[in-house]
Amino acid sequence: MSLKYEDVIAKYEPVLGLEVHVELGTASKMFCGCNTIFGAEPNTQTCPVCLGLPGALPVVNEKAIEYTIMIGLALNCSIAPFSRFARKNYFYPDMPKNFQTSQYDEPICINGFLDVEIDTDEGIKKFRVEIERVHMEEDTGKSLHMGGATGRIHGADYSLLDYNRAGIPLVEIVTKIVPGTGKYAPEVARAYVAELRDILRSLNVSDVKMEQGSLRCDANVSLRLIGSDVLGTRSETKNVNSLRSVERAVRGEMIRHAELLNKGERVVQETRHFQEDTGLTRSGRSKEQAEDYRYFPEPDLVPIVPDATWIETLRAALPEKPSTHRKRLQEAWSVPDKEMASMINADVLEIVEATVNLGADPAKARGWWLGEIARIANEKDVTAADLPITPKDVAEIVALVAAGELTDKLARQVIEAVIAGEGRPSEVIETRGIKVVSDDGALMAAIEKAIAAQPEVAEKVRGGNLPAAGALIGAVMKETEGQADAAKVRELLLKHLGQ
Amino acid sequence: MAEISRDDVANLARLARIDMAPAELDHLASELGVILNAVARVQEVAGQNVPPTSHPLPLQNVYRKDEVTPSLTPEAALSAAPASEEQRFKVPKILGEEA
Ligand SMILES: [Zn+2]
């Protein structure tokens, strides 16, 4: 029986720290001209530089520096007038050089912040997440652990390495500790990663696909007793591959820490791995023994001294901030705060916008994405954006309903069928033979049948009790299997009963 | 005088994954000390007005354009690997923890 979240926050104050790694969307790698295509055949995108062969000479990709400066500027950072690369020495087969080219005490961007908003019981609350640094490094290769039962390193007989990813430019964005989030720590963590993702997307510097690993979040969590200023021991959770998982991982770690502390046990300083299926974390590498990466300045690369005019040109060209963009949409669509927050929380804002851009009425587009589609997504435990239904499909459905060719009920059937993979809306309508019964003759037959079945109700309506008509309309809708337009049925029925 | 202790050598050996006998540790502690001292003499020449450098030439901002150039074929990439499988480098089982 695990501890309740309310009991955790009644006693402890969470302290968050977030590290986000972003693979930049450059055409070539960080220090060599190898391609960066995701999912390419193993070891088809490697060369002497990214394989760490003797004598190879790395040269910095200018675009990667430009992207990193843009990220720093968008996060309100100062851009260092002088920064350098450093070697982070460690022995692990994912880095064939036996070191990772990274930055140590001289990162490109420092001291920024990002404001996030979350929807709480007390209305929309704003939190400022301070950014400590944004630095450049390179991604590592991918390992497959062979033998053993689980594909995990423990119990494996050997490992296979693909170095296509090794050397892809990676930016690490590190926050300062985020205190004062209280019970909202999980939501703040999620909102931060979501906001960061939206900013990176608007800058067009990365494809920010969490599920493909181009955006990865490590969540550091510790607890301290409320009222105490002694920080607790932190754990660092890796493998957090979706926004929802960020929230779950932080909440899960808070509960795990509190359970240990309540039992008088201590929290071990370690890396933990998030398990998508259970929402729990499992123990990874212990960090009890101080790591010693023996950083030193990279002798094969020269310092980065960005020209002030370059920085100002990049600053001037920054796109509209996602938060400003949202405010603009909210005004244009006249959406209340709460509903805007629901859209952001369900991560459907972008698809609603795309649907509206295809001609759909904003309220209708929002209604479908937040209603029927979100409901199905919930059932399947995925996000609406993951379902095989596109803004184009929804725009088409909205148009058909507006034209009277689908009722809301039929539209729901079409949506379900599209998600079930039966094809695009027009194909579903065609194959299922879905159409609104608008033929007056067929409707009148159904109306007369309904009246015959409930003569006493019909009498009430004749007598002027209009709300009673609902029962008859319901019967007609049932008879026509929802294919009739309810407004039309009502009109015909009332006319028929002399109203 | 730069000093390097037996413990320093043992720690470096552990970090570098080099298995060393106790006798080698003693021997290397004194030998590495001599090397460090030789290199440290540079500090006698460099005055306070000479900033430390990480590169022998006064260069900065050396960049390449973000252009794709041909990679090695997988066969060439794997040609010097002691073992390979499924077009991947094959390494002995990794001891210790997950990264
Ligand atoms: Zn390469």
Which short descriptors sum up this protein?
heterodimer; A: 499 residues; alpha+beta; Arc Repressor Mutant, subunit A; 3 domains; 9-stranded mixed β-sheet; 3-stranded antiparallel β-sheet; 17 helices; 15 strands; 20% strand; elongated; B: 99 residues; mainly alpha; two-stranded antiparallel sheet; 4 helices; flat; binds zinc ion
Please, could you describe this protein's structure?
The complex is a heterodimer of chains A (499) and B (99). With 499 residues, chain A is an alpha+beta fold. Chain A has helices spanning 5-11, 62-74, 185-203, 243-262, 308-316, 322-333, 337-345, 349-357, 362-370, 372-380, 391-402, 408-419, 425-432, 440-453, 455-462, 469-479, 486-496, and strands at residues 12-23, 60-61, 78-79, 86-89, 99-102, 109-120, 123-138, 142-146, 158-162, 169-175, 215-225, 235-240, 270-274, 281-286, 296-297. Chain A has three domains: 5-314, no CATH class; 322-432, no CATH class; 440-496, Arc Repressor Mutant, subunit A (Orthogonal Bundle). Chain A has a nine-stranded mixed β-sheet. In chain A, a hairpin with a 6-residue loop joins strand 13 and strand 14. In chain A, helix 3 packs antiparallel against helix 4. The longest helix of chain A is centred in the middle third of the chain and has 20 residues, at 243-262. Chain A starts with a helix and ends with a helix. With 99 residues, chain B is mainly α. Chain B has a domain at 6-44. A two-stranded antiparallel ribbon of chain B has the order 2-3. In chain B, helix 1 (6-15) packs across helix 2. The longest helix of chain B is centred in the N-terminal third of the chain and has 19 residues, at 22-40. In chain B, 6% of the residues are buried. The mean pLDDT of chain B is 87. Chains A and B meet through strand 2, helix 2, strand 8, strand 9 and strand 14 of A and strand 1, helix 4 and strand 3 of B. The complex binds zinc ion. Zinc ion is lined by residues 29, 32, 34, 46-47, 49-50, 167 of chain A. Chain B: InterPro entries: Asp/Glu-ADT_sf_sub_c (IPR036113), GatC (IPR003837). Chain B: One of its GO terms (biological process) is regulation of translational fidelity.
